[in-house]
Fold:
Amino acid sequence: MAAPPLITTPFTAASTADDVLAGVDLTGVRAIVTGASSGIGAETARALAAAGAEVTLAVRNPAAATAGPRSRVARLDLADRASVRRFTREWDGPLHLLVNNAGVVTGGPAHTTEGWELQFATNHLGHFALATGLHPALARGAADRGEARIVSVSSTAHMRAGVDFADLHFTRRAYDPQIAYAQSKTANSLFAVEATRRWARDGIFANTVNPGGVATGLQRNFSPAQKESLAAAEAAGVFTYKTVGQGAATSVVAAVAPQFARTGGHYLDDAQEAYTVPDDAELADHPHGVKAWALDPASAERLWEVSADLTRD
Structure:
């Protein structure tokens, strides 16, 4: 059976979040954007609120976030299980849109109090616990409006590594911050695949986005080797830097575009569904592709079960 055609939209790499939302009325939509104190998250939250949504900026440091019209700031530390539980417990009412945008990059080994590798714990496990804890609210949101959406922010970095189920937290292998980050970004995509499989019956659909190259605070902890790798990738044409507005556009496409209504498990790049490449493909040859390991249903199901076991109270 031939694969279904890739989903396309009228938007491009040059489109901004405001371009995507032009003429869109989000009145009545309740949204959460994690990591919305700066960069792509802040721009995503601003654009959604400007279109009429009621937006919660879920951030680790509330003092660093600015709430505008139709938005509020709430504390959420994705690396702290108690903080995630508190946030989900205190959420009241339906939720129509969850943008799992927050991310962390480390320059060397770092772990949570549970011994979890920090990038995997924050970028994946924290968002997993957040989404599963908010599942009842998302289901209510879907009942209200016909669907609820989750946007999982990944990266071209996912092409560096799949999920190593035998050593998620680098207890056996030598620590490589770039591989650790890549594993967490692959996990972001696998979450969207399995969340859609499990929750589509509830009207909840999750998609993954690659925002592209945007200079944000995420790079502040890069080691010299990471900075050199980024510079080499730019020089090789793997990416061209976007503005923050352009970086937020693909998140907003996944959040509101009719082309992605009631469908999930897709990986978006430059506002379009990306084409799939083999696991041994080179990033430089396919900067706008998605590796098969990031969409693999069996890996997605296995990761869900492992994540549920790790985050279970």
